[in-house]
Amino acid sequence: MRWLTLVLLIVIAALQWPLWFGKGSWLRVWQLDKQLEVQRAVNETLIARNAALDAEVRDLKTGTDAIEERARSELGMIRQGEVFFQLLQPAHKTPPPH
């Protein structure tokens, strides 16, 4: 009887081994779930970036406002007869103690 119990435990362990540690095991499924979550987060970031780039491309194709805005902000261009003013924010100073 003792041998039968031992043999049955070994058979059960042998049958359970692939479930827990084999190629399609629970551990592997858990790892793939974590990878899937990370990849979905990356995909969401890339989708948002692609949407912003798509909107910018459409704006550049249809209107001149975006081109003018980029020329002013990135290249520092101004129209003829305009005067360029640059306003600087004052540095944050702590008030003197009383």
From TrEMBL:
This protein's name: Cell division protein FtsB
Superkingdom as given in the UniProt entry: Bacteria
Keyword entries, A-Z: Cell cycle, Cell division, Cell inner membrane, Cell membrane, Membrane, Transmembrane, Transmembrane helix
Protein's cellular compartments: Cell inner membrane
GO terms for biological process, alphabetical: FtsZ-dependent cytokinesis
Keyword Cell division: yes
Recorded GO CC terms: cell division site; cell septum; plasma membrane
Lineage: Bacteria, Pseudomonadati, Pseudomonadota, Betaproteobacteria, Neisseriales
Membrane topology, Periplasmic segments: 22-98
Membrane topology annotation: Single-pass type II membrane protein
Free-text function comment from the UniProt entry: Essential cell division protein. May link together the upstream cell division proteins, which are predominantly cytoplasmic, with the downstream cell division proteins, which are predominantly periplasmic.
NCBIfam families noted in UniProt: PRK00888.1
Pfam families xrefs: DivIC
Main location, first listed in the record: membrane
UniProt family annotation: Belongs to the FtsB family.
Subunit and partners: Part of a complex composed of FtsB, FtsL and FtsQ.
Residue ranges annotated as Cytoplasmic topological domain: 1-3
